[in-house]
Amino acid sequence: MGMNKVLKFEKIFNKTRNSKLIHEGIVYIEDSSGNFSWIKGHGGKDVDSPLLMASITKLFTTACILILQERGKLSLNNEISEFFNKNTLSKLHFYKSNEYSFDLCISDLLFQVSGLPDKFEEKKNSTKKKVINEDFSFSFDELLNWTKQLKPHFAPQTKGKAYYSDINFDILGEIIENVNGTTLAEAYQQLIFAPLQLEHTYLPQSEGDFVPNIYYKDKVLKRPKFINSCRASGGAVSTAREMMIFIKAFFGGKLFNKAIFNTLACYNKLQITMWPISYGGGYMRIALGGFMTPFVEKGELLGHSGSTGSFAFYYPQKDLFFVGDVNQFSNPALPIRLTMQLAMGAK
């Protein structure tokens, strides 16, 4: 991969950073072997600057679930009622006069096919709207109660339906704690950070833990309480360098047997606001091809983006990994668009 690719990557990143929304950013692209490696920072960000992973944290949660399944501690077929008392789950999923709360399985959460609503995005009093104006903390129980006040979108496992909702992964986080007998932060440390020797990746838990600021348009948001509360669905902090180590391990079989992807690679389109993203077993898929991109050969991006501008994707057709952050909360499509453009630049 020669100078031509590098020039294309430069051009694409320069165009992105010229957007008035982008105040700082980092892009890191590498192939499996590390023979090709390209890094570009903007606004003082480099490959070791702390960045908020936001929903890329879901890949950590997915990895823990898959590792625990491999160790025989749980199964994707387990009903979630095995891990909670009845009162906790009661009325969580009540759809068209039927209660589905006790039928939900771990796989329904992992594949985002539970039909559960999303307090982060939905309604006028969504947590996303609230967090733009103030910092606040919340507990898992509060999150469950908020979710119970919203209507589910469909019965679990309705054919062809998927709906992206943070609560699916917040529940998975509680299950990991229960099964592993530790806090979620300790589970991440034991199952992921220690084996991969990640020293600058962590789940903030107290006011003393550093949480990077987030940009919303031109406004700088300092939101440690909120990030401390996001946990399994979006609370982790990392660096581009360590996200690269993780995404390679996730898809490369270093954390769990990658044969499991045969089962996980069953994709459903998410709600229209998430277009062009489909969801598999704990990760996003973005198809490259068709009318949307002028691709001759079809390809796909596998991984995750975050609502704050973070991204970590694998492009198997070209054996490339893309990680980074554009730190902008006002437009969650930015990291998706950038990664797609970079993938096209790698042709």
TrEMBL record:
GO terms for molecular function: hydrolase activity. Keywords: Hydrolase. Gene3D superfamilies: DD-peptidase/beta-lactamase superfamily. Residues 47-332 form the Beta-lactamase-related domain. The keyword Nucleotide-binding does not apply. The keyword Hydrolase applies. It holds the Pfam family Beta-lactamase. InterPro entries: Beta-lactam-related (IPR001466), Beta-lactam/transpept-like (IPR012338), Diverse_Enzym_Activities (IPR050789). This is Beta-lactamase family protein. It comes from Cytobacillus dafuensis (Bacillus dafuensis).
